[in-house]
Amino acid sequence: MALSGLQTFENLGFPTSREEEWRYTNVGPIAKGGYAAAPYPTRISKSDVEPFIYLTKDWTTLVFVDGLLAPAASSMPMVDGADIMSLADCIPAASDLVQEHLGKHVRAGFSVFTALNAAYLRDGAYIYVRPHVVVEKPIHLLYVASGDGQSASYPRNLILLGDHAEATIIESFVSLQDGDYLTSTVTELAVGEGAKVDYYRIQQESKQAKHVSVVGVTQERESSFTSTTVNLGGELVRNDLNIVLNGERAECVMNGLSIVDGNRHVDNHTALDHAAPRCESQELYKAIVDDHARSVFNGKIYVRPNAQKTDAKQTNKNLLMSKDATVNTKPQLEIFANDVKCTHGATVGQLDDSQMFYLRSRGLSEDVASQLLTYGFANDIIEKVRPEPLRRYLHKKQVEALNTSADITELA
Q1: Closest CA to 227 of 182, 187, 278, 274
Q2: Distance from C-alpha of 76 to C-alpha of 61, rounded to nearest angstrom
Q3: Radius of gyration of the chain (CA)
Q4: CB crowding 159-170: b at 16 or more within 10 Å, else e
Q5: Which of 226, 100, 215 shows the shortest CA–CA distance to 155?
Q6: CA separation for the pair 55, 401 (Å, rounded)
Q7: What pLDDT score does 378 carry?
Q8: Would you tell me how many other CB atoms lie within 10 Å of the CB of residue 31?
Q9: What is the model's pTM?
Q10: pLDDT < 50 positions in the chain
Q11: DSSP 3-state assignment of 281?
């Protein structure tokens, strides 16, 4: 995989804004950054990561520092019916499952960054939940950047759910200190027939960091996949989420929230391939953009000729908090079947004048009314988070990111 990754990287080169998929995102700071893989990760203990484990210690938590597993900081109890381990430990064994799935749901040639990930893959998480097994507690994959300048990590996760299995997976990306570094990550998920996955991706890295992610999901018949992506950090962020509904009556829900300020740039690209009949999908991505920041959304729904009875809904909503903030949004539908229900839409605007007037008429100051409406706009996504400790943690981070007073949360 490493050799093919390097060859692909050399063939592709870094994308430019002349390419449609990268039209609004300049990766020059990454190409010129001189990032090199950190040879020896910083040693950390469980106490170092306590602020990032969502106030719970009884979940299975794999901690990776600069892309490598840190066993001393991890909590890895045995989970009946599931294999949860370092990907580096299972690749040499070359099990049939690893051979069948690794590199199949996200191919090295998808982009220059997946090629780099394949070339410099050292570690990540391997999760296999056997058929009919329900993992009751979330599995938390915590990626910690030491913050050392100009370092790069390329973690890769392979997550497999057997038929009718169920699991909640949380990926978190944090940093121990401010720093200019690169995280380029790939996650592959194969969701078996009738299986259910609740998947969360929380990115709150250093505001100088560069973060590029690609998530590839394949769903089989009657499976259910729900994803929530939250972006609170990073100077330059690009997320690609690609889902293939490969079996009849599969269901997919995609939620996203980005809070972007300063000169930060966050780009969310999603692609949903309805490849089978009678599948349903719902997508809601929101962004709050302040100062000189930019948010990009590109959402594509593709309905194949045989995917009759498809029901797909896509919505992108953006809230501009500054006249200098920028939003670029591009929802797309490509439909090649005639018996479908597909809708998409996007909005970009400031706080609603009528809602502001209503709150002001009830005695609230302009500042309090503005905070309340902004909090409610973001909270729509946070309230969909199912694990209560994670939802409570994100409420706290939402308040911090929006500079919301404690009184606002009580009013909301």
Answers
A1: 187
A2: 6
A3: 21
A4: bbbbbbbbbbbb
A5: 215
A6: 19
A7: 93
A8: 14
A9: 0.94
A10: 2-3
A11: strand
